[in-house]
Amino acid sequence: MKVDVHGLTLKYGDAVAVSDLDLAVNEGESLVLLGQSGCGKTSTMRCIAGLETPASAVITIGDQTVFDSGRGINRAPNKRNVGMVFQSYAIWPHMTVFENVAFPLKMKGRKKAEINEAVHETLELVGLDHLAERGASLLSGGQMQRVALARSLAMQPSVLLLDEPLSNLDARLRHRLRMELRELQLRLKLTSLYVTHDQDEALALADRIALMQAGRIVQIGEPHEIYANPKSASIAEFLGVDNVIPVTPEDTTCVQLTATGQKLSVEPYEAAETLRLCVRAEDVLLAAGGTGDVNALPGTIVSFAFQGSTVAYRVRVGDGLELDAVQMKSAGPLFGMNDAVTVSLPARAMRVLPAEVAA
């Protein structure tokens, strides 16, 4: 079912956690709320679930209004038909896997045969049917999170809410479960809202990403749009852009590096009070000799790190300015400490952006 949030404001005392937020999650869509800790993403989710009471908002799930501050509507969490999967597994260690998944169905008064069928079907979905009678305390972290997911899915919720459910797992398992979650969401056409601070997780799981800063959504769009066209330098930096450099405008296709005075040719950009040049490390090109390119800068290698198929470099290009560069191991010569290099910054790879999105 579709989820609509209008004018959501949440306060803790005098502190505003979420400010006049509008959000729509389409039916069958996976929308990811992405942002740093404290930006309001979990608070937004908790308001939808009914675990927080907003100062003002209208929240609907499907055709049911579950909260309306103006009309005094505030349906209890158990009346909203939402499933939640938390960062902590929140499963009962004294119960078996089957009993954990069956518990919410028993609370709803479902018949025994119906519960048995629903639990086994759901455990099969998450790959745990063979462990139905195992004690939950004997499971691995990944298995516990699958149980928590199965418990929510068994309820056939109108919307599935996931609050950083993979953050307690090691990197290899997190990657595997991320792919399993995406496969489940696509197969079941689940309406889901996923909260994370991990940009890779967001890009992998989302149909759309809503990026939050300071209690408000500053950009929303499909993953490839957000990745390629961040609206501000702070968003670009959060999305993994390594080089965010203060610049001074010369004209609409030229900027000056504030730290060194060097001029660079860039793609046309919009004027703003404070500008930053943003370029990803993999787009910074290194060469042993001069290139003759207008955007070629002399530099010196100050550090490097071998990363398997790639090598990461830190390059000093002037007093007070260092750039990160990543090169494929096979792309050219390997450089060492204090090697002189030419740094090329292709205009097509650079974005000149305002430091922040205007409020």
From TrEMBL:
Gene Ontology MF annotations: ABC-type ferric iron transporter activity; ABC-type quaternary ammonium compound transporting activity; ATP binding; ATP hydrolysis activity
Source organism, top-level taxon: Bacteria
EC number(s) reported in the record: 7.6.2.9
Enzyme class name: translocase
Gene Ontology terms: cellular component: ATP-binding cassette (ABC) transporter complex
InterPro entries xref list: AAA+_ATPase, ABC_SmlMolc_Importer, ABC_transporter-like_ATP-bd, ABC_transporter-like_CS, ABC_transpr_FbpC, Mo/tungstate-bd_C_term_dom, P-loop_NTPase, Transp-assoc_OB_typ2
Keyword set, alphabetical order: ATP-binding, Cell membrane, Ion transport, Iron, Iron transport, Membrane, Nucleotide-binding, Transport
Stored Pfam families: ABC_tran (PF00005), TOBE_2 (PF08402)
SMART domains per record: AAA
Annotated Gene3D superfamilies: P-loop containing nucleotide triphosphate hydrolases
Name this polypeptide is given: ABC-type quaternary amine transporter
Organism of origin: Nonomuraea diastatica
